[in-house]
Amino acid sequence: MRWTAGLLGFLLIGLASAQEAxxxxxxxxxxxxVTLYPDRALVTREAKLQVPAGTAAFTVRDLPAGVxxxxxRARLADGTPAKLxxxxxxxxxxxxxxxxxxxVLTADREKLMDQLRAIQDRLAAIATRREFIQxxxxxxAHEASAAILKEKPKIDELKGTAAFIEESLLEIADKSRQAExxxxxxxxxxxxxxxxxxxxxGGAPLTKLSVAVTIESPQATAATLEISYMVVGTxxxxxxxxxxxxxxxxxxxxYYGQILQATGEDWSGVEMSLSTAHPARSAKMPExxxxxxxxxxxxxxxxxxxxxxxxxxxxxxxxxxxxxxQNDAVYVRRDLKCLELPxxxxxxxxxxxxxxxxxxxxxxxxxSPHKVTIASSTFKCAAERVATPKLSAHxxxxxxxxxxxDFPYMPGxxxxxxxxxxxxxxxxxxxxxxxRFEIFLGADEGLKVTRRLxxxxxxxxxxxxxxxxxxxxxxxxxxxxxxxxxIDQLPISRDSDIEVMPDPxxxxxxxxxxxxxxxxxxxxxxxxxKEIRLGYRxxxxxNKPVHGLE
Length: 550
Description:
This protein is an alpha+beta fold. It has four domains: 2-95 and 206-232, no CATH class; 100-201; 235-278 and 330-436, no CATH class; 447-541, Sandwich (Immunoglobulin-like). It is built from four helices and 29 strands. It has helices spanning 18-22, 100-150, 155-201, 301-323; strands at 2-5, 9-12, 25-26, 29-36, 41-51, 54-64, 73-76, 83-93, 207-217, 221-231, 234-245, 250-261, 267-275, 343-349, 352-357, 361-363, 369-380, 383-387, 396-402, 412-418, 421-428, 436-443, 447-459, 463-476, 482-489, 499-502, 511-512, 517-524, 529-541. The longest helix has 51 residues, at 100-150. It is flat and about 115 Å long.
């Protein structure tokens, strides 16, 4: 494969004269492949060329202004005697809108403006007719007054004329109102159309890029030219739908990529891949700089240099924390295989994944979110019930899933459906292949838990004593037994002068941690309830105020 790197400016390998460059032959191209990254895309165009013998230049125009000039690459497909000799990238202004959607909007705007001009002509014609009828009305009134003075007027004729004038004026008024309504509707459509067109073009003067390649061939031949480039103004994020069924004991996760595309060119029927890599990020590991210590004699070069070094190290540390979930946590599999799903998964690098969509995708440049399906995976699930009555009166359903797929679930938002009912949204963290993860499935309305403060007593003295007792009641309104976990806590002391003692009548917990977390595992029969008592005493000096008693 013969690749030629394109830079902003003219790169020439060989002897292509300025006259030959001026005789550039326009090359019609179409987008064949798009690899989408979180903040940009790698676009590959293909052009079919008829290359004459000798040296010739071919130009591909109308590339979007967001193309990164130093990312442009060109190559000729294998099997042709022609060779690439040079490539040039230029920026130029355009007076007309380029892009399928923008072209349609521009044509629609011209039609609307023609319609509005026609409506204005109708209104002018209606106004002329109204003036004519008003002139007849004035003339008839004058003649009728003169006839009354000279002779008896013909009443029937006057009535007929008056009826004609009345009908004409009513008809004119009706047509005038209709024309005004049509005008308002047309102006509103024009406003919306202009807003969308401005949104697509950014409201700024349009610029485009052209790529001219110089090709040398010993004979006339057909050739396929591929031009690839990075373009900004687009990106993708993962998001998910999970459909869980407690009755069937399974959960299906639908893995989507949400794409925003505002590059200025539509992608129609392209081969689409979604990559988790970040091309904008430096591939080089940051260098640990010396942490120099010196005498504080002045605020000169030493301190400025040290401040700069410390700032750089802090910035790298912050960046590492931000990208940790999307890089370091990826579980690398060496035996990835083609999945029988809407995607193929392969591994170009050990720290990123690429999801190749099997079906051609069409993504217009309209700044609207577009969804593509990446995968659908079904896992076994067993729902647990858990409640933290100190924080919420609900008993929540929770399930633990095992990611048995060959690909990771990247951090993203998730819509949760339980038995086909939408119950809410949540966020999913990084889940590597083979990893287990928890998902909450909303509240179980068949169970109720209440937490009530029964005792709150403060006894004064040199050594004060605070006494708290809570009652936790769990009720089962379901038609079958229910198992659940109740979580609460005891205060913990981090001061030797403060002592925490549990009440003797504390309901013994199933488990307890060193941080004071208590868990009770309960099973409640249908229509029954159970009560948990939580009590503790806190002893502390009167001269040492405390917090965290409740």
